[in-house]
Amino acid sequence: MSEFSPTPKDKFTFGLWTVGNPGRDPFGKPTRGVMSPAEIVDLLGEVGGVHGVNFHDNDLVPIDASEAEAGRIVGEFEAALKRTKLKVAMATTDLFGEPVFRDGAFTSNDAEVRAYAVQKAMRGMDLGARFGASVYVFWGGREGCESDAAKDPVEAEARFRRALDFLCEYSIERGYGYKFALEAKPNEPRGHMFFPTTGHYLAFIPTLKHPGMVGVNPEVAHEHMAGLNFTHAVASALAADKLFHIDLNDQEFGRYDQDFRFGSANLKHAFFLVKLLEDHKYAGFKHFDAHAYRTADRADVIEFARGCMRTYLILRKKAAQWNADAEVKALLRQCHRPGKDVDALTEKFSRSKAETLLGMGFDRAKLAGRPLPYERLDQRTLEILMGV
Ligand code: DIG
Ligand code: MN
Ligand code: MN
């Protein structure tokens, strides 16, 4: 056990499709063998310290599997879970791979496709509940359009809302106790994606019939693809008490969805994310929705998974070091001016407070001249990260 060895208590999880990714990409064939769900669970057991595994319905049971095949696959999967003591943390539905969903699932223009998508999600919820999954993710991979001639976006969102309201009721009626987590992604695979960022979902959730059951599942790569600060997206979710799940990975800005190993592209961004999660005591699953480079063999896939978790644990220690650093604390004291009395004025409105505030004089030149040593603060941050 090294200082940065994960344990199941860290609640790190991996989807079957992550370490099971065979290396296929839009321009090339698979470079690795396709593993069965049981073999993927055994690989995660070999990785060590993993809390749980996640699956799309068809990652586990292929869409055209016979009853007998489904029974065999599920039985082998269950045996592998027992062998490795891995839990099933999150489940989700593949509503994006099959041609039937080419024009969306819940937002499709075809009522039969919408109904089939809800049925498929219900069956996915049944399968997840069978293994004790407590979070159910919805990534609307095909909800969008290439031309806005296709459908009214207000109507499209209404269809998405109807499906979620129905599925919330299904979870309640079945007593599954699911926390639904909505995952945003911009720009692909549809020409224009509905709900492209976490912020869009945070605005959407209050319009649902059971908003308390529904939160978000932000993903690093997806907010980066929109050119946004992921830590701020997570902060908005935390502030709204809606961070029900999180997809950790990494991503070069301005690229397709790369799903890189956590921390491998933007170490400073990863640091501030881990600091935020730890400062705010996020207690949910930390899912690495990522995959190894296409060049990786099985051994390197294992290193990929270990690297995701080690980087999180190293950055967690760096965050504690940063919070305790004397120079950081001194610099923060210089930059943050509480001004208790003036702050109290806008704490809670009252006519007299408003009058007092209206009557106050502010010396703009003095305020503008106060030092803000952010260069030194950011340099100190980098030097802590660089181990200096
Ligand atoms: C893509 O980032 C999506 C799908 O992999 C899955 O539906 C979801 C679960 O993490 N993330
Ligand atoms: Mn992704
Ligand atoms: Mn994801």
Mind explaining what this structure looks like?
With 388 residues, the protein is of the alpha/beta class. The protein has 2 domains: 8-323, TIM Barrel; 326-385, no CATH class. It has helices at 16-19, 37-47, 57-60, 67-84, 111-130, 153-174, 198-204, 220-225, 230-239, 267-279, 298-324, 326-335, 340-345, 351-359, 364-368, 374-385, and strands at residues 12-15, 52-56, 87-92, 135-139, 144-145, 179-183, 192-193, 214-216, 246-248, 286-288. The longest helix has 27 residues, at 298-324. It starts with 11 loop residues before the first strand and ends with a helix. One manganese (II) ion is lined by residues 219, 221-222, 257, 259, 289.
Fraction of residues in helices?
Answer: 40-55%
Kindly identify the CATH topology of the largest domain. Answer: TIM Barrel
Tally of contiguous helical segments: 16
What is the H/E string? EHHEHHEHEEHEEHEHHEHEHHHHHH
Structural class category: alpha/beta
What small molecules does the structure contain? 2,5-dideoxy-2,5-imino-D-glucitol, manganese (II) ion
Residue share in β-strands: 5-15%
Low-confidence stretches: none
**What is the rounded distance between the termini?**
25 Å
Report mean pLDDT, rounded to a whole number.
97
Strand count: 10
**CATH level 1 name of the largest domain:** Alpha Beta
Rg on CA atoms, Å: 23 Å
CATH architecture of the largest domain: Alpha-Beta Barrel
- Tally of structural domains: 2
Q: What gross morphology would you assign?
A: globular
Per CATH, the superfamily of the largest domain is: Divalent-metal-dependent TIM barrel enzymes
